[in-house]
Design brief:
Length: 220
């Protein structure tokens, strides 16, 4: 019984910990931090693009707990420049002036880290401000810098470098060359770690408790 109670306490602790706010998000550029069990990969190659056309990218990956805000669409023009990295299809925020701000919404229980390849479409230095959002509260995570046009860089956002229970519901990328000067970018090879919903964690704990109780009764 003590073991079952311990399992339930652990499950409730995880549930409460997952809902804590005030995380300190961290920007990183090491793709090695985005490998391991539970990571989800999206490369947009599964989207069928008509010849010479584009397809809006919004809820195609809702089953994987990721929904993009309007403004992102497929791009097949730039991937041929680096097919080994970008494949045949990538995502773009449109021509400069269209959609400088893109939101990635992680449904279910949110996510605790996300990374992606990013390419600036402008010859000037492009700054991308990154915000994490949890419970409707936005936190500035930092600024990504793409030095030259068509330079491929990996960027990542971790909810908190110290506390693994931290998470975010979404991240916002805002790309500006300067005041009122939006910039275009290409995104590809998105990788993220979704967080189970608190209710799911609790159910797992309760299920383990029920199993332990059943085993104890059989032994007695």
């Amino acid at each position: 019984m003590k073991a079952a109670a311990s399992i339930l306490v652990c499950a409730l602790t995880l549930t409460l910990g997952a809902s804590r706010a005030n995380a300190a998000p961290l920007l990183v550029n090491n793709p090695a931090q985005f490998v391991g069990p539970g990571m989800v990969h999206i490369d947009f190659e599964d989207i069928v693009v008509p010849p010479g056309g584009t397809v809006p990218i919004t809820n195609q990956y809702a089953s994987k707990n990721l929904v993009f805000s309007p403004g992102l669409h497929t791009d097949t023009s730039f991937p041929p420049l680096a097919p080994a990295i970008l494949g045949a299809v990538s995502a773009s925020n449109g021509d400069p002036g269209c959609c400088p701000s893109i939101t990635m919404n992680f449904t279910g229980g949110g996510a605790d880290k996300v990374g992606f390849d990013l390419i600036s479409l402008d010859p000037a230095v492009t700054q991308i401000d990154v915000f994490t959002v949890l419970g409707g509260v936005s936190t500035f995570a930092g600024t990504l810098v793409a030095d030259t046009a068509l330079e491929i860089k990996f960027f990542g956002v971790i909810a908190d470098a110290v506390d693994p229970t931290k998470k975010f519901d979404s991240i916002v990328l805002t790309t500006l060359l300067g005041p009122n000067q939006p910039s275009g970018f290409i995104m590809d090879n998105v990788v993220y770690h979704p967080v189970p919903e608190p209710a799911s964690i609790t159910l797992v704990g309760l299920g383990a408790m029920g199993l332990a109780t059943k085993l104890r009764r059989r032994r007695s």
